[in-house]
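Entry 14. Ran structure prediction on the chain below.
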Amino acid sequence: MAPQFVPSLQTLTLSRRMTKVTKPTDPEGLILEAWAQGYMVGSIIILICITVSNMRRGILLHKLILLELVLGILHGTFIFNHAPIYGWYLAITATLLIISWSLHNVVAWMKTKPFMGRKTSIIFIVTVALAQAYWVLEIYANFTYFNNISDIYLKTRVFEALFRDPWWVYTTCCLLYNIRTRYNFGFFELMYISPRFGIMMLAMVLSIIFTIIDICAVTDTLKSVLPIGINPFWKLSFVFKLLTDSVILDDFKTALDKLSRYNLSRFEEQLGENWASSKNMTIHRERTSEPVPPNITTVAGGRSESSESVGPWIAVTTETKVESFKMKDMCGLTSPEVLG
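Output, C-alpha cells:
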C-alpha cells in the first residue's frame, strides 16, 4: 500500500493564502523599505537627543514622551534580519510600536486636557483605553502573519488608522481652535513670534496628510504606485507626530501662557520705548532780575525755541524763555527820540 500524504497545518495554511511572507526581495521594494526605516530611526535618534536636552526632572509628561520615542525606534531595524528571525523580530518590535502609538494618544490627552471640559476629557481617555482591545488583536495578527501562520492581519490592518488617529486629529483641531479664539493669535503671527510653535503646527498638519495617504495605500488606492507590501507613509506620519511631542514638551496651555506673557511684556516694553522717544518735553524757564513791587507794571518779553526730531530715538524739545523787566527800564526804548 502506497503511503498517503498527510498535509501539515502549515502546508494547509499556506495553500489557503497562496503566498509566503518574507523579507522584501524586490530591489525597489527593499530600497524603499530600507530608506523608510533608516529615516524613522535617524529622526527618532535626533528627537531623543532634543527631548533629553530639554526635559526637566520630576515631570511625568516629559518622561512619557521619552519612553514613547524609545519604544518606537526598534521597529525601524527589522530589515536587517532574515528568516526565521525576521518574523519574530518584526512581531516583537511591532508590539513595542503599538505601545508607543497608544502612549502618544495618552501624551496628546495630557497636553490637551487643560483645554477640555471634564466630560470631554473622560471620553477622550476612556476611548483610548477601549481601543486597546483592537491592538491586542493586532499584535496577535502581526505575529501570525509574519510567521506564516494566519492571514488575519490582512483584514485587521485596514482598521489601524481608525483605532490610532482620531484622538490625534481632535488634538490638532482643539489646539488650532484655542490658539485662534482663546489667545487671539493669528497662525502666521504665532509662527513669527515663536518658530517652535510654527514647526509644531506644521508637523501636525503633515502627520495628518501622511495618515490620509497611508489609508489610501492600505485600501489599495495606491496599489499601482507602490511596490507590493511596502508602505512608508505611516512611518512619515509617525515621525511628525513624535516631532510635535518633542519640540514642545509642556502641555499646550502652559506653553501658550508663557508665550502670551512674553509677547505682552515685549509689547509693553516696545510701547514704553516708543512713548519715551515721541514724548514732547516742554521746559519753561522764567527769570527775573529782582522782585517786582506790586505797584510797578512789568512787561514779559522772550522767545520760543523748538527743535524737530532728527531721529527715531531723539526727543522733540520745546524751550520757552520768559524774561520780565520793569516798565521804567523800557522807557528808553519808547522815547520820542528813538521813535523819530
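The first strand starts at residue 281 and ends at 288. Will compare against last week's run tomorrow.
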